Amino acid sequence: MADKEYYSIGKGEIRQDAALKVTGAALCSTDIHPKGMVYGKILGSPIPHGIIKSIDISEAEKLPGVVAVVTGEDGPDHPTVGGYLTDKFIMCRVGDKVRCVGDPVAAVAATSEQIAEAAGPEYPGYVMKLGSAGDAVMQLQLWMNQVAVLYCAAEFVPVDGVFGETTEQAVRLFQEGLGLPVTGVVDGETWQRIYELLNPPIPASCANCAK
Fold first, then answer.
1. How far is CA 24 from CA 31, 33, 200, 206, in A?
2. CA gap 88, 183 in Å, rounded
3. Which tens digit of pLDDT belongs to each residue from 189-201?
4. Which of 28, 70, 120, 176 has CA 20 to 30 A from 104's CA?
C-alpha cells in the first residue's frame, strides 16, 4: 500500500484559475454587464413588527431610469414561499404584518444601481432630536446599532422608538467621528451617512479590487 501511486493524495495541485485571480484578470459577476441589464433593490421593513396600512410607489415610479416598482400586490394572491410549508407571500402585502426588520415590502428595477438606490429607503423628512419618538426613531436606533457592530463601536442604544439622552449622545459621537456638525440632531445628512455606512457602494469590478 505504501508504494501505491495516487492521482491527488499527497500531491500539490495548482488551481487552473489561480493566476487569473491573483492578478485580478478573472471575471466576476460584477464585471458582466449584458445589454439591457437592470439593477434591483429591495425595500425591507424598517421596524420589527407592524401592520402595513398603505404603500405609495408613485414617487419611485417617477424617477428617470426606473423600469418597474413592484409590491406584494403584484404577486400571487396566495402564499408561495416557505420551507416545508408554503406559508409566506413573496413580499408583504397591504393589510398584512411585517414580522422582522428587513421583511421585503417593495422592489425596484432601474437602469443603474444609483437610480435603484434612490428609489429605496429615504430620510423620513423631518428632524429627529431629543424628545422625538416613532418608527423613524426606531429605524435610526436599529441602524446605529448595526453600525456599532460593523465598526466595533462600544456603545449601543436602546431600540425603543424614543430619542432619549442615550440616543442623542450616540448621535453626537457618530457626527464627531465623521466630521459632521456635532449637534445631536439627526437631519438628512446624518441619516444619509448612516445609510451609506451600512450600504457601501459595490466596486466596479473585482479587477479594481485586486489592484
1. 11, 18, 21, 7
2. 43
3. 887 788 777 765 5
4. 28
The residue type at 122: E
Distance CA 64, CA 72 (A): 23
Distance, CA of 160 to CA of 146 (rounded, Å): 15
Cα 205 from Cα 200, distance rounded (Å): 14
User: Whole-angstrom Cα distance, residue 34 to residue 25?
Assistant: 19
Grid cell at residue 127: 428632524
Q: Are 186 and 128 in contact (CB under 8 A)?
A: yes
Q: Are 129 and 191 in contact (CB under 8 A)?
A: no
| Residue 23: strand, helix, or coil | coil
Q: Return the beta strands (E) in the chain as ranges.
A: 39-44, 50-51, 66-71, 81-82, 86-88, 97-98, 104-110
Angle, to 10 degrees, between the axis of helix 165-177 and the axis of helix 135-150?
50
In angstroms, the CA 73 to CA 91 distance is 8
Q: What pLDDT, in 10s, does the model give residues 26-83?
A: 888 878 888 888 988 888 887 778 888 888 888 888 888 889 999 989 988 888 877 7
